[in-house]
């Protein structure tokens, strides 16, 4: 048993040896993805897609609780439509993929394969919004988008990826800003409560905000290797898009007004965030809320009389309270232990002849390999409690990693020293607000600005770079 489990672990590169290889090994060995003949694109395999389906189901419910409706926009954007908002088109131009031929004929106008759908929603809003009675419009869509990335990595950055994009239209700036901040809080709750990933809420700097936005809010997470990952964004557009697309409505006084707009999104890179926040050298470690299998039942000595029948009975009971599955294959128990450990199943339930005699089973939690003997009389309650322990344990471990890897620095020399001595992580430092200093810090230290946190701390009076009076505290870091 130990030999077979060790062999399975050997198939995965140690994260301390090569974190990038470790990550790719898990994506492949846990059967999350497969590469394709289309460079930069991937097949999301059933197990990986099941994680995305669970993410989608939870988020979709949260959106609908806030009054949002799902729609579906076209995949193609005429070039003339994309050109209507100058900043927006310039921001996405390097990543656009274009269709120039339809069938055997050259198109009169190029079509962009959507990198995002602001322009399509604006065209639609212009057609359906005429009065204040038509507002607000609270829309979301679940689609794929294409961005022609030069360097790709499964889930984190691919040329085609899955996401949700929310687009809303409001009568006033106040309502739109409230919506932008509300959706940031929805994303925060989802990451922290369901994915067990602690995040920092903040606002992007002027140079780093979304193309065409007045404000970009974000949530930033810290991965196991100390690099940051942007887990979600929420944008306030003001009335800039409305003016560019001539969207107007009559207010209560019958005066024409421009509505205010928001956009917000999360993508399949969340699966990458789960891997890099919770995974270990034995493979995936999945938060129970999105795990395709929450409890795997393993019969031990299943060839003996009554074992398989009892294991199936246990599985049937668990299916009523969680996503449970039995592995009654001819593989050895040791192989099964290693297989489901690699796939990150939160709870393993073992049952053999001696357990049946004692009216018990063995429960093993994936995140810490803790083994507990549980009476079959309390099976359902025990498994649900263990699932909660897994979620809580994952969150505490991820938070400890973030806190341990967060450094307070007062100048660029301190940043360089902190990173050299402790490894990558978040740097908290004061900033004067100038783009010049923002760029200079990255040039000197290798860390870029991640966000201006909503929860500000006064670390000193001066900018980490130029020494002039500071305006705000910034999170800095290397990022995926």
Task: Write structural notes for this entry.
The chain is α+β, with helices and mostly antiparallel strands and 480 residues long. 36% of the residues lie in helices and 26% in strands. It contains 15 helices and 23 strands. An eleven-stranded mixed β-sheet has the order 3-7-8-14-11-10-9-22-23-21-20, sandwiched between helices. A five-stranded mixed β-sheet has the order 16-15-17-18-19, sandwiched between helices. Helix 1 runs parallel beside helix 11 (333-342) and helix 3 (46-65) crosses helix 7. It is globular, with a radius of gyration of 25 Å.
Defining key terms:
disordered N terminus, 15 helices, five-stranded mixed β-sheet, 23 strands, eleven-stranded mixed β-sheet, 480 residues, 36% helix, alpha+beta
Protein topology:
Blueprint lengths: L1 H9 L8 H11 L3 E3 L6 E3 L1 H20 L3 E2 L5 E3 H4 L3 H7 L4 E6 L2 E9 L4 H11 L8 E10 L13 E11 L2 H22 L5 E4 L11 E8 L5 E11 L1 H5 L4 E2 L5 E2 L2 E8 L1 H10 L16 E5 L7 H13 L4 E3 L6 H10 L4 E5 L1 H5 L2 E6 L5 E5 L3 H26 L1 E3 L3 H11 L3 E6 L3 H11 L2 E6 L18 E6 L3
Parallel strand pairs: 3-7, 15-16, 15-17, 20-21
Antiparallel strand pairs: 1-2, 4-6, 5-6, 7-8, 8-14, 9-10, 9-22, 10-11, 11-14, 12-13, 17-18, 18-19, 21-23, 22-23
Summarize the structure.
The chain is built from 15 helices and 23 strands.
Estimated structural class: alpha+beta
Helix content: 25-40%
Give the uncertain stretches in residue-range form: 1-8
Mean pLDDT: 95
> Using only CA atoms, what is the Rg?
25 Å
Number of helical stretches of at least 4 residues: 15
Count the beta strands. 23
Strand content: 25-35%
């Amino acid at each position: 048993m130990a030999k077979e489990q060790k062999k399975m672990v050997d198939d995965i590169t140690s994260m301390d040896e090569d974190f990038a290889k470790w990550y790719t090994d898990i994506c492949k060995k846990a059967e999350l993805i497969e590469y394709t003949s289309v460079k930069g694109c991937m097949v999301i395999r059933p197990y990986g897609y099941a994680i995305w389906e669970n993410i989608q189901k939870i988020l979709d419910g949260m959106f609908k609780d806030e009054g949002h409706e799902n729609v579906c926009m076209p995949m193609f954007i005429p070039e003339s439509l994309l050109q209507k908002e100058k900043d927006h088109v310039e921001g996405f131009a390097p990543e656009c993929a274009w269709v120039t031929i339809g069938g055997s004929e050259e198109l009169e106008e190029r079509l962009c394969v959507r990198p995002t759908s602001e322009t399509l929603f604006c065209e639609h809003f212009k057609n359906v919004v005429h009065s204040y009675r038509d507002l607000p419009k609270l829309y979301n869509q679940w689609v794929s988008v294409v961005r022609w990335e030069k360097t790709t990595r499964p889930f984190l950055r691919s040329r085609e990826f899955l996401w949700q994009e929310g687009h809303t239209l409001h009568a006033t700036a106040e309502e739109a800003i409230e919506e932008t901040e509300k959706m940031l809080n929805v994303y925060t709750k989802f990451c922290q409560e369901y994915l067990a990933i602690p995040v920092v809420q903040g606002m992007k700097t002027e140079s780093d905000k979304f193309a065409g936005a007045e404000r970009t809010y974000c949530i930033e997470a810290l991965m196991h290797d100390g690099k940051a990952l942007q887990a979600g964004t929420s944008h306030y557009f003001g009335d800039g898009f409305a003016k560019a697309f001539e969207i107007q409505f009559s207010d209560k006084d019958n005066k024409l007004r421009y509505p205010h707009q928001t956009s917000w999104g999360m993508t399949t890179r969340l699966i990458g965030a789960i891997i890099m926040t919770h995974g270990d050298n034995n493979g995936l470690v999945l938060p129970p809320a999105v795990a395709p299998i929450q409890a795997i039942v393993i019969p031990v000595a299943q060839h003996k009389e009554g074992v398989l029948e009892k294991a199936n009975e246990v599985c049937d009971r668990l299916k009523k309270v969680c996503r449970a599955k039995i592995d009654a294959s001819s593989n050895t128990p040791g192989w099964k232990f290693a297989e489901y450990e690699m796939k990150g199943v939160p709870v393993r339930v073992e049952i053999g002849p001696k357990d049946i005699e004692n009216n018990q089973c063995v429960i093993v939690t994936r995140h810490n390999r803790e083994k507990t003997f549980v009476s079959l009389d309390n099976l359902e309650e025990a498994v649900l409690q263990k699932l909660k322990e897994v979620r809580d344990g994952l969150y505490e471990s991820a938070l400890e990693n973030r806190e341990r890897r967060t450094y307070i620095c007062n100048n660029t020399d301190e940043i360089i020293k902190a990173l050299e001595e402790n490894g990558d992580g978040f740097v908290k430092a004061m900033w004067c607000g100038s783009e010049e200093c923002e760029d200079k810090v990255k040039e000197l230290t290798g860390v870029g600005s991640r966000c201006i946190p909503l929860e500000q701390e006064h670390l000193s009076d001066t900018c980490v770079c130029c020494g002039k009076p500071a305006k705000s505290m910034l999170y800095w870091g290397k990022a995926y």
